[in-house]
Amino acid sequence: MSGYVLSSTSLPVPETHQTNSLKPTSQTLDNDILYTFKSPFELKQIHAQIIKTNTSPSILPISRVASVCALTPTFPYAQKIIQLSNKPETVIWNSCLKAFAESDSPNDAIRLFYQLCKHDVPLDAFTFSFLLKACTKLSYGLYGRIIHGFIEKLGFQSNLFLQNSMVHLYAVSGEIDNACLLFDKMSERDVVTWNIMITQLVKKGNVDEAYGFFSRMPERNVRSWTSMIMGFVQCGKPKEAIDLFTQMEDKMLSPNEVTLVAVLAACADIGALDLGKKIHDSLKKKGFTTNIHICNTLIDMYIKCGCLESALTIFNNMEKRTIVSWSAMIQGLAINGKGEEAFKLYSQMIQSQIKPNGVTFIGLLHACSHMGMVKKGLQLFKSMTKDYKIVPRIEHYGCMVDLYSRAGLLKEAHEFIKNMPIKPNGVVWGALLGGCRVHKNIEMAEEAIKHLLELDPLNDGYYVVLSNIYAEAKRWDDVARVRKLMRDNGVKKTPGSSSISINGIVHEFVAGDETHPENDAIQERWKELLEEMKKRGYVPNTSVVLLDIEESEKVRFLLGHSEKLAVVFGLMKMGDGMPIRVMKNLRVCEDCHVALKMISEIVDREIVVRDRSRFHCFKNGVCSCKNYW
């Protein structure tokens, strides 16, 4: 490519740094100094020796001459040596520019560019590709715009690689509007151009806009699909991520390691165990299951799908484990009601010389909370700072408030909140509110709700809990007041919903749902189960229906809870002996807790329900969490 010469008058001069010169160790020419000189002074000494000994100047390593003098006042001296060597000057300086751009000091590439312009060195497309790389590493939008100007003036605007690099630079520098503007003006685009826009929009959380680009792509590669799948997972749209993955498979595209990890995360979010197992098998065939990151993702997926044994198998078979592996497993045991096992695993971790982190202690404090171990929890909380110098985060304070609140120590919980060194958030006050409901403390609940309405006024869950506290106390006027407050603030109650994955398809049920295609069969099977349950002493606990309605209506309301419908559907569709796994968006109510224990005994089937706070494993009429609260 032909070169161009520019003036440097429009280019700002980057900050310069002093370089330390080293004196040559010998006045005689030898190979050690010839290839290791580190300063212009040493270079000049060697050059003098070359002249004295009548040695050919071609012996000088030209690339080293360029790199040593590039950012110094001796640039013209190096330039003269390069020109006399009859080697292409632009290629030599581009090599130096590339090295600077890929180094830990990419700013040096911009400083060298100033020198190239100042001393009339011809520039080509490679020059600008390395410059854009340096600017991207630095997220330098200002220099990027200047370099963009050079590219336009020199006629390189038709170079697709440079155009893509400019789009990428604008996007990573926070100038997404400029990136979109340049994208729209490009006369030619390839799959890389589209992928850059999708990836950067996803990173900025603009998933809908990213999907707009994805939908318009004339052709897509694996990276296009992977970026979009990751975007849906990161923004809390796991169903869309799985649907997209299914479409990708229909296109006969082979997913890579990154794709599969992203889909596993989506499976974990909605409990799509069948697909998760399928991906696990695919990873085994591809030999990826020795990868620590993939193993950690698999552990997380199996835990969130309620397959604790599968998670433990992967954990135990890992040759090497990171703190992420240990913490995930400890957390998994804790939320599955196996606190003692969580503590044992923690002891093994300490014996293995693995230092715990903040996530480890969140798992341990969860275990204490669900087991009512206040003293143990307090010891662990103090140990974080004292023994491991871990500064407690808001999550740790939330766990401690939850621990006190579950144990009925509401005054202690409130005092703990008041003495927190950081401002308590909605989760912290919400934990206290939850304790107030269980222990029927209206006064403390009203204190908590005052803060919650300031911190998180659109969270329907807090209004519902307060309304339920009033309803249990038969204070219907206060119930009406809370519901009016919800209407005035535009807050709607989230309907209870449950999902179950069967043969790779996720079926969702909403409380009172009668729209399912197999509703008649579901209701018939549920009626049969209900008759057997009543023979064994089941009586619907209408006290959990905190509505001022007739008793018969309360019973009908209870029997239509989404988790019950999902479990009945699972019993209809899954083979004998297969565990039923249900994901619930809200907390399982006391009546469902009793009912599911009884159903597990009647059908001799393990039923696992993941609600918003923990796992409930119902087996032989018993729940893993020992008690409802």
Quick synopsis:
By secondary structure, the protein is mainly alpha-helical. Helix content is 62%, strand content 4%.
| Percentage of residues in strands | under 5%
Low-confidence segments, ≥5 residues, pLDDT <50?
A: 1-28
Q: How many H/I helices?
A: 32
Quaternary state reads single chain
| Shape, principal axes of CA atoms | elongated
Alpha carbon gap, first and last residue: 74 Å
Structural Rg: 33 Å
Mean pLDDT: 88
Strand order of the largest sheet: 2-1-3-4-5-6
Helix content: 55-70%
Number of strands: 6
Main sheet specs: 6 strands, mixed
Summing up helix and strand content along with how strands pair, one would put the structural category as: mainly alpha
Description:
The protein has 629 residues and is mainly α. It contains 32 helices and 6 strands. The chain has helices spanning 31-34, 40-52, 62-69, 75-84, 89-101, 107-118, 125-138, 141-153, 160-172, 176-185, 191-203, 207-216, 222-234, 238-250, 257-270, 273-285, 292-304, 308-317, 323-335, 339-351, 358-371, 374-388, 394-406, 410-418, 426-438, 442-455, 460-472, 476-488, 519-535, 551-559, 562-573, 590-602, and strands spanning 497-502, 505-510, 580-584, 607-610, 615-619, 622-623. A 6-stranded mixed β-sheet has the order 2-1-3-4-5-6, covered by helices on one side. A hairpin with a 2-residue loop joins β5 and β6. The radius of gyration is 33 Å and the shape is elongated. The termini are far apart. 41% of the residues are buried. Residues 1-25 are annotated as: Disordered. GO terms for molecular function: RNA binding; zinc ion binding.
